[in-house]
Structure formats: C-alpha cells, structure tokens
C-alpha cells in the first residue's frame, strides 16, 4: 500500500497510549509473526541512494551536480524547473532528501521494457521533446515519457538519464537558475545525477529489514510455541536456529526432548 510522503521536520502523529488492560490483552494474544517483517520494512520512510537501475522504484528525487544542490521539480501546470535542496548534509548529494512534494517523482517500470516512467505530484509524467525541452504535462506514457537510467561508468551510485532519441539529461549553470535539458549527445559530469529513493522500496534493503525482523523473537514467544517454560540454553539454541534457518527443526527437537524429560 502506498503511504503519504513524510519530510524532515514533519511532526509525527502521537499514537494513543495503551492502557494496562490493553497491554495485558496484547500479551495474551497468540504469536503473530507473519506480518511483522513486512510492517517493519514498510514503515521505513528514510531516503537512500539507488545503486542500480533495478533499485529505482517508488518515490525518488533527481539530485543534480550543481554548485548549490538542486533537483528536478515541476509545478502544477507541468513546467519543469530546478529546485534548491534544503535537506542535504554539507552539499553531499548522497544525503539529499526532498522538502517539497514538487521535487518528488514516482518511478515505475514501463511494462515489458527496461525503461522507467516518472510521475509528478500532479499525476502527469516527466518527458522530453525532440528539442530537448523537459515537460510534465501528459497523463499517459509515450516514448517521450519512457526514460532509460544507466549507471555512470565514472561515478559509483550515479546515473545518466537517457531518452529514446539517444540523448541525455544535462544540467547547465549560468547567471540564472540552473537549467535541465535532454539534448546532450555524450555523457559528462553534468549529465551524471544521483537518484535518491525511499528505503522501503529498495529491494536489497527491504529484504535485509524483513530478514532481521524475522530473526527477532522473545523468550515468551518461544515458550508459547513450544508449550512450556524454557531453560536459558534452550532459548539461546532456538534464537540461533531462527537466524540460521533451521528454526522449525529445532522447535520439534525441543518439544520432543521436553516430553522425554517429563516421563523419565
């Protein structure tokens, strides 16, 4: 389920405090570990750097190699412009986060291709015309809204954004605001962008978080599964088995051993 974007400085709504009776009721419920891993991963609203084209999905920002950190944004009419990045540590684009919804694009793979579409906050897609002018005015995806993101050969963790006319996005700077176009014929430092994305959409991070969430289990939960009180050594053994992947076999072994001890 897509959740609303959260920016730095936003106040998080306070959850209602549990009463003592509610806490007791919660502790009495049976073990519910099935959905806990997915919930832990889905709640992560931090921003990370995309490392590979396969990472690029969900909300993203294009951080540009300008003197003062900027990114690609668009207004409600679909006009594309560069916007200053306020949430950045010492100018390092690898730490950039959006502070304005106009800076955020939602990335999705174009079905059956290696191209990616980027939808703006107003529901229209980022595109580039034959003159190299960027726009975000169309509600449907055509060749001009299908972009190829390739990893930079010289800058790890950075990308070159290519149109279907074999031209690249490029940022230029003069006395005015930096300008982004889509008509560069060769790659360079100015065509090399960082793509920042929400951590919960990054496949590898999401898998790692789910794995760690699955590994967490309390003594009480283990005792509920086994059906009796456990010795310290048994708890350690079961937690280790949960990490290493032979949890169910270990549970069965502990249950059998408990029955033997009971009738010996």
What would you say this structure looks like, in words?
The structure is a single chain. The chain has 264 residues and is α+β, with helices and mostly antiparallel strands. The strands form 4 sheets. Strands 1, 2, 3, 4, 7, 8, 11, 12 and 15 form a 9-stranded antiparallel sheet that branches. Strands 5-6 form a two-stranded antiparallel ribbon. A hairpin with a 6-residue loop joins strand 13 and strand 14. The radius of gyration is 25 Å and the shape is elongated. The N and C termini lie far apart (53 Å). About 8% of the residues have low confidence.
Short description:
The protein has 264 residues and is α+β, with helices and mostly antiparallel strands. It has six helices and 15 strands. A hairpin with a 7-residue loop joins β11 (148-151) and β12 (159-162).
How many helices?
6
Number of strands: 15
The N- to C-terminal Cα distance equals 53 Å
The fraction of residues assigned to DSSP E strands is 25-35%
Radius of gyration: 25 Å
Secondary structure category: alpha+beta
What is the share of helical residues? Answer: 25-40%
Please summarize the sheet with the most strands. Answer: 9 strands, antiparallel
Q: Give me the strand/helix succession.
A: HHEEEEEEEEEEEEEEEHHHH
Low-pLDDT runs of 5+ residues are 17-38
- What is the average per-residue confidence, as pLDDT, rounded to a whole number? 83
Q: Can you tell me the overall shape?
A: elongated
